[in-house]
Structure formats: C-alpha cells, structure tokens
Amino acid sequence: TLELIDFKNALEQFQNLVEKMITQKTKESSGLYTKDDDEIDYDKFYTTTRTLFGPAVKDQNIQAFFSKIVTNLDERPEWLEIFGCFTGESDDMPSPSKESMVFLVSEKQQIAHSVVKRKDVIKGIVKVPLLHFTVTASQRGVLTVFSKQRKSFFSYSSCLHQDTAWITGCDFLPNLKYIVAVTESTVILWDYKSKESQDNGFVMKPMKNCLLCVCTVTMSDNLAKDTFLMGDDKGYVYLLTITNDDFIMKQSKAEKESQFKVLDSESFDIPKRKLHDDWVGKIKYFSALKRFASCSTDCINSFVLDDIKRLEDHLPVKEFSVPKGVNAFTYCGKAKVIVTGG
Predict the structure, then answer these.
(1) I want to staple 181 with a disulfide (CB 3.0 to 4.6 A). Which of 50, 93, 188, 222 is the partner?
(2) How far is CA 60 from CA 22, 45, 57, 178, in A?
C-alpha cells in the first residue's frame, strides 16, 4: 500500500512536470517565454524523472518521451510511455526477457541456411500444422518445405524448368499433398513427396491474366481432390478443383523433355467472376465462416466476403468499399471480427 501511495505521488509530480514543460514550450514557440532558473530543459527533465521513478525507467524511454512532447505539443503522450511497455508474468516463458514488451512472443528459431539467392524475396509463407512443416515461395521460383525441426529442407527451383515468370503466391493442398503456387502466367503443382525427383509435378497453362494470389478451400474430406481460389490483375477470382485423375487424363503431349508435366488449362472447368475493378491483392477461405474473402485497392469493391457458390451463380455478393481500397485482412474467430488494412 505504501508503495502504491508513493507511486501515485511520484506520478502526480511527473504529470505536473509534463504540464509545466508543455506550457513552457508553447510559450517558447509563440515567443512569449522568458528564460529563468525554473526552465525545464532535457537535463532537468531527465534528472527529475529519474529521481521520481528510479531504475523503473530507461534512458531511451525518457529521451523518447521528451522528444515526443517537443515535436508535437498538441499530442500529449500517455504517462505509461515513460516506462516503455510492460511485460506480464508467464509460466510458459522459458526465461525472463531482457526487454520489456507489450506482446509476449515465443522464442524464435532462425534458419541459418539461405534458401534464396541475392535479389530474390519470399512472396509466400504457409504453415501446415498437421504435417509440422512450413512452405515458402520466392519471387524468382524457389519453393521450399521446412521440416518441424527446421533443420532439414528440400526445394524446387521452378525457373530451372519453366518460364521466367515470377511466383506471386503459394499454398498447400491437404488432400492431394501437393504444393500449389501461382506465377504471372501459370499454376505450379509440386509433388514435394516424390523421392524419385524433387522436380516432379505439373504446370497448368496458359492462364490468360496475371495471377497474383492463391488459397486452398478446405471443405471436402475427399482425399482424391482439392479446391483452391486464385485472384488476378483484372479483378477476377477463379475457383479450381483438381483431382488425382486430372493428373493422368489432362496432361499435354507437348514439352516431354520437362520433368514437370504440362496440364492444359482449357481442359478444366474453371469458374471465374470479376469481383473487383483492380488487382486482387489477397484471397482467403475461412472454414469457420464457410466464406471466402478477397480484397483489392479498388475503392468501390474493396472487400468481398461471401460463399464460393457466388463464383458460379453470379448472385449479388456481400461487399463494402473503403477509400483507397484494402491491402490486407484477417479474421479472429475468438472475437468474431474481421479486420482490414488499407
């Protein structure tokens, strides 16, 4: 109780110090302030704050707090910012963190081996919890599967066998156990399980528009097929179902020299619908809602959330507009909210 009373007193004195400094700085900016012995500069602010709170505050937080006041007198920072951020006690934490943080995160593991070369970037990361691995896709065509231990991995470089189109997204097909990736002009289906060759799989082409994103639709327990959605640069969303039989029946006779067999896209029934008037930036299927969502920088049809049947029946879809569009979104099942970022 005494500590609480002492802290309240110290906090009250600190808030008075801040108010006095804001008043002083406001007068200085208007040319009405006359310097005297009671002037609060950084050294005095630092010394007073350190005296009030002792080692509970850090030098960098005092400096940041002071700078925040000086640069914007109208926006008064919250007093708790002087302490940085608080960390809570958790039995799950293996060791106390040296830095105080608002968000408690588990210890990170770094993959020391580089899976992409210089001037290449990761365009997609997909976690597959059931199989305990992670899939990454790089822009220049490297698909990589990391095992649970993060020590072993195997990858396929699409640019070695296919055209030089950049990969724009990837996902995992849970029933067929394939990695699906989209490029500007093709769909790649990689059989990562194949022990005969790491370059075993299929390429579907031609695709008329530039594909920008892909996501798996987890609806069926049918182990012989998978469904996924794709978005392109013309605002179209595609629905495509692949079966084991398709790999056998719909291969093209061309390009036999390639280990990646070619699938003729025109032999597939691919429903599509124009939902946006600009690029489809992201697409996702939410199993809990039984709905798919897509977003675009389109100001009118910025975000769409509806049943995948809308891609085939062309009934009105649920959508809303956001100035300058939507670049990203996510769904929180616990809070039952969807959050968008523009």
Answers:
(1) 188
(2) 20, 13, 9, 49
